[in-house]
Specification:
Elements (H helix, E strand, L loop, with lengths): L5 H16 L4 H12 L12 H11 L10 H8 L2 H23 L2
Helix pairs in contact: 1-2, 1-5, 2-4, 2-5, 3-5
């Protein structure tokens, strides 16, 4: 990848900020974090973390929705708290890696 992923870095920064500062339970904060990165596509993400990005999206869209609730809400509804914490940590890890990539010369 020739360009630095500043757009992805910015979006993941907003997501992590939501996870840390928003009020409410972790599942509500995960929804806000996901919405922050929902505009990202694979072309916005460096090759070296494509798999982590795809896995994160997959973890948050695993369940089929009921009615008009959407896949993320359906997935979060059934998610255990320890899994929710693990996913929050994945957001942080991707953000930290994007920070390193953006600083590289």
């Amino acid at each position: 990848m020739n360009k630095k992923p500043f757009y992805a870095w910015e979006k993941f920064g907003v997501a992590v900020h939501s996870l840390v500062t928003d009020h409410g339970e972790i599942k509500a904060r995960l929804l806000a974090a996901f919405l922050s990165i929902s505009s990202l596509s694979s072309r916005d993400i460096p090759d070296e973390i494509q798999d982590q990005f795809a896995e994160l999206r997959g973890l948050l869209t695993a369940k089929e929705p009921n009615g008009d609730e959407g896949r993320v809400r359906a997935t979060l509804r059934y998610m255990r708290m320890d899994k929710a914490s693990e996913i929050a940590e994945r957001f942080l890890n991707i953000y930290l890696r994007l920070t390193e990539i953006c600083k590289e010369d």
